[in-house]
Amino acid sequence: MDLSPSDLRLLVAVEHTGSFTAAGREVGLSQSAVSHAVREAERRVGAVLFERGRRGANPTPAGERALVHARQILRQLELLRTEARDAAAGSVTGTVRIAAFRTAAAHLLPPALDRLTTRFPGLKPQVLVVPELGRGAAGEVADGRADLAIATLDDHAELPGLHHGELLTEPYLLVHPAGHPRPRTLPLLDWPENCSSYTRTWWRTQDWLPPRRLDVADDSVVLSMVAQGIGMAILPRLTVIGPPPGVELVDLGPERPTRRLVHVTTSAARHSLAVRELIRELRASVN
């Protein structure tokens, strides 16, 4: 027998709460009923989905994969109901879940969401800010936690099982304290998300960059430290929109590094009217 939607909701609740007891409180079942239901789900799937122990219930590798599909299926059921009602009423309502890295969330999303919710007041965006490290914002879509992501993507990278479309390619700029007599003697400020392979390749060919480097938390901290005269940096254009006083921006010329921004969805989510309209507004924001 296939798992039912209630089975899937229970599995997601166990993952979310980390224990059978807490999951039971969330879905209105006793701990023993949850334990029995999970065992039955595991029997139907043919794999152990959770490790039980003193620290609660944690997904096994099989459970992690099953939970990805559970979240995606539950989301599709939610969209089925919402979009069918919307089609009958001629409206767009419900939620649209968005994952984005910090500067995209700060500069690209606000105007797009303002226009989107003005056109469709019944639509409720939910924004999750995700560091662009590892699987980043695109990983939230792949795992069923977001309908659309704004992510960075190297020119030759692929996103298996996902669909992406171009938003913009932004240049990097040299940023240094304004008025400093020898800014290139300052330490180079960097942050973990600045990990584009294209940028790294460019850096290796620039013998003028200072050998001293300071790693800080994120690009906003980098910009603040530049304004304080602590160092210089190579920053993407989105980061330096509305820079603080005391910062000078320098174009790096035609061979400058760039960062490619894309929108990412699943095959199913890209057919959602809310997602399609959001992509339309995002493209309008960058054009």
Folded structure, characterized:
Helices cover 42% and strands 23% of the residues. The chain is built from ten helices and eleven strands. The strands form two sheets. Strands 3, 4, 5, 6, 7, 8, 9, 10 and 11 form a nine-stranded mixed beta sheet that branches. A two-stranded antiparallel ribbon has the order 1-2. The termini are far apart.
Summarize the helices and strands and which ones pair or pack.
Elements: H1 5-17, H2 20-27, H3 31-45, E1 50-53, E2 56-59, H4 61-89, E3 94-100, H5 102-107, H6 109-119, E4 123-129, H7 136-142, E5 148-152, E6 163-177, E7 188-190, H8 197-204, E8 213-215, H9 219-227, E9 232-236, E10 247-251, E11 258-265, H10 273-286
Parallel strand pairs: 3-4, 3-5, 7-8, 7-9
Antiparallel strand pairs: 1-2, 5-11, 6-9, 6-10, 6-11
Helix pairs in contact: 1-2, 1-4, 2-3, 6-10
Characteristics of this structure?
287 residues; alpha/beta; 10 helices; 11 strands; 42% helix
Summarize the structure.
The protein is α/β, with parallel strands linked by helices and 287 residues long. The protein has helices at 5-17, 20-27, 31-45, 61-89, 102-107, 109-119, 136-142, 197-204, 219-227, 273-286; strands spanning 50-53, 56-59, 94-100, 123-129, 148-152, 163-177, 188-190, 213-215, 232-236, 247-251, 258-265.
